[in-house]
TrEMBL record, chains A, B:
EC number annotated for this UniProt entry: 1.1.1.23
Top-level class of the enzyme under EC nomenclature: oxidoreductase
Gene that specifies this protein: hisD
Protein name per its UniProtKB record: Histidinol dehydrogenase
PANTHER family: HISTIDINE BIOSYNTHESIS TRIFUNCTIONAL PROTEIN (PTHR21256:SF2), HISTIDINOL DEHYDROGENASE HDH (PTHR21256)
Record lineage: Bacteria, Pseudomonadati, Pseudomonadota, Gammaproteobacteria, Nevskiales
Domain of life: Bacteria
Length: 438, 438
């Protein structure tokens, strides 16, 4: 067995900035041929509805569905799938769901209002969306945890109708069989309707609606390049969550955590796929090498060792820094999806962190707790998007309306202000409409 | 003078639903040639930076700038522009800014944390973005109010650096002169740097950065089709606000508001441009005709009467309904940017409203108060996006990080739950990393 390859960098060496830029360089590129294919599918679904949806589903998922209604999985089948799961898995999913729900409750946006000194009332009113779509990838990456993380916040927000779609391509024997754990999780989380469709055609159907698929107001959930391109294409017609890139973790360690733990934390990111990124930053070169040693030893525990090797060799790094302050600075440049602060005083270090999707504080909070059951959402901004965007949450399924409520007396001074600025902007009807109230 | 044309609809008549769909049918279409042009500009700015930015700016804005540094307007010039404004306009802008700031303060997201029953701490931490870009249209639609509405929430959020861009094409005499009211508003609102660039090249420069233009984390502000396409293209690299469509108003009136007021409220939307949409809904056909009559009379007050005529003829409507409940239902289908509830009991009617960007309650709150000075933002979701998105606000310039802080004891039960679900998903490193902490 060859030794595990991983890049070593010294943050204080000349050329480090360029090395880091190169390591991070993976802005989501739009592939022109993917975009073209997806645009054609979206236009076709919009024009031909169910007929086009059936054609694409049969072609891409190698199925032979003749009626669009067959694409729906009845609710009773979701409940049956739940019952077929092993009891200990059901208990684990129930515990996770309860914790996800409890955290989500804290995220709910609330109405507020205040009065100005003129007696006018100003405020913000929060309402749930009417109907949202959750895209759940099928095939090899069929994850019940993703179902919980996407559906529960929507239900906590009060969305009356959550539509889940999950592609279920036929297997070698020609059977199209959805994953029991995924369907069971849909049952547990409270998805209202489930359709076995996927790809750009599913996104287009959710955005525009067909006779069978009801049109939604927002589409969330990860998918391949075609799904991502389709979400970008329908953005504006419906809301979308952020475009998910490969998953990432940065671990900042003071050199005092068991190197075997940190090795496995890095692996838990690397095992996702070859594009996943695992970076360890420590003010202690000897410690970095102890972690590298532990990685060598523990790789044998993993059936997915080949993916882990490729991910670490292609995108991983061990970065030696002067001190934890420099570690925080580098982490802010990376703006990682997941950040472990495996140090003695994580709260002090947190004060220096500006951008991260989720922060895991201390030696006893590995990223995988966040992936499954700590409570916060595991759908997090990737590819440096933590600079400007949020974890998926209840607030992504609510929206705000501004309220402006004026009295006859309170309106007069506003009429004068609005009238004067409208004059300056040359908008005469605005000025007149304001002054009508004075 | 020809009579003013506006569509009359009866919500209880057969075929109304189709008529309404047709009236609203203006989903933002992507024009392939615009997209292609914009993609080329974005790629060129990314590759050649300042050199490309200068070329496009000189070409599209008919300028002759030789050094990229000349594209920046020094802060002293912003202050000078402010001082050149008439005193009463300065007073009006100051009053508006104070009210916008006060409302914005209410929108700030806050940190929170709670403990679970195991002693683990879970929470959410809120931080401002590092640097944002505000696009301000130039030319005929140079609005100081837009500067206030875009810059103030970013500064209230705590964004250290707000970069404003405003195209300043040369006039017939070859002079490129920014609008004093726009620069003065930038001074008042606290924009940190201002550049006289626009179009897709400005959006690309903000997203990728050049030697002169610093890269930002998010770009907000309205623009033409090229600006909208550029924002869509850079989405993911940076955050963007929603893609702005034509402006809209729905007025629901019980027939008791002075028809002359409602006429001018509808005009104040219609005067924006020919694509703007003004719709009045009332349970009283005679009242609708009185408003139509008032529109005929008051049109003479307006220098922009031609635009108003075109907008009302092309996209306006007077809709007769059975009662206010039916009016609310139709309004929910429209999900308007602006909604006036010009009725005796607007609070009761508000309970039936699900989707609207801003709601103006009562007869004394015309939309133009919201456009300038009531306090809430005038950047609102258009083209039915109020179904899923928010007014621009402080929260658009802040982002959340999830916090997961476990104790050694508190970690054990989580390790068991995470381990079990990870087993089911076939993610062995996730399971092992979790179980290391048990």
């Amino acid at each position: 067995m060859s030794r595990l390859e991983i890049l070593r960098l010294d943050a204080s060496a000349a050329g480090f900035d360029a090395q880091l830029d190169q390591l991070l360089d993976r802005a989501p590129e739009q592939n022109a041929s993917v975009t073209q294919t997806v645009d054609a599918i979206v236009a076709d679904i919009r024009r031909r509805g169910d007929a086009a949806l059936l054609e694409y589903t049969n072609r891409f998922d190698r199925r032979s569905v003749s009626q669009a209604a067959e694409l729906e999985i009845p609710k009773a089948e979701l409940a049956a799938a739940w019952q077929r799961l092993p009891a200990d898995l059901r208990a684990a999913l129930e515990a996770a769901a309860a914790r996800i729900r409890r955290y989500a409750e804290h995220q709910k946006l609330a109405d507020w209002e205040f009065s100005d000194e003129l007696g006018n009332r100003l405020g913000q009113r929060v309402t749930p969306m009417d109907r949202v779509g959750v895209y759940v990838p099928g095939g090899k990456a069929a994850y019940p945890s993703s179902v919980l993380m996407n559906v529960i916040p929507a239900k906590v927000a009060g969305v009356p109708e959550v539509i889940m779609v999950v592609p279920t391509p036929s297997d070698a024997e020609g059977h199209s069989k959805p994953n029991d754990a995924v369907l069971g999780a849909a049952h547990l989380a409270g998805a209202d309707r489930v359709f076995t469709i996927g790809g750009a055609q599913a996104v287009a159907a959710l955005a525009w609606g067909t006779a069978t698929i009801p049109p939604v107001d927002k589409i969330v959930g990860p998918g391949n390049a075609y799904v991502a391109a389709a979400k970008r294409a329908v953005f504006g017609r419906v809301g979308i969550d952020s475009i998910a890139g490969p998953s990432e973790i940065v671990v900042i360690c003071d050199g005092q955590t068991d190197p075997r733990w940190i090795a496995m934390d890095l692996f838990s990111q690397a095992e996702h796929d070859e594009d996943a990124q695992s970076i360890l930053i420590a003010p202690d070169i000897a410690y970095l090498e102890r972690v590298a040693e532990a990685m060598e030893q523990r790789l044998a525990e993993l059936p997915r060792a080949a993916i882990v090797r490729a991910s670490l060799a292609g995108r991983g790094a061990l970065i030696a820094v002067r001190d934890l302050a420099q570690a925080a600075e580098i982490s802010n440049r990376i703006a990682p999806e997941h950040l472990e602060l495996s140090v003695a005083d994580p709260r002090a270090l947190l004060q220096q962190i500006r951008h991260a999707g989720a922060v895991f504080l201390g030696r006893h909070a590995p990223e995988s707790f966040g992936d499954y059951c700590a409570g916060p959402n595991h759908v997090l901004p990737t590819s440096r998007a933590a600079r400007f965007s949020n974890p998926l949450g209840v607030y992504e399924f609510q929206k705000r309306s501004s309220l402006i409520d004026c009295t006859a007396d309170g309106a007069c001074p506003l009429a004068a202000i609005a009238g004067r600025i409208a004059d300056a902007e040359g908008l005469h009807a605005h000025a007149a409409s304001a002054r009508d109230r004075s």
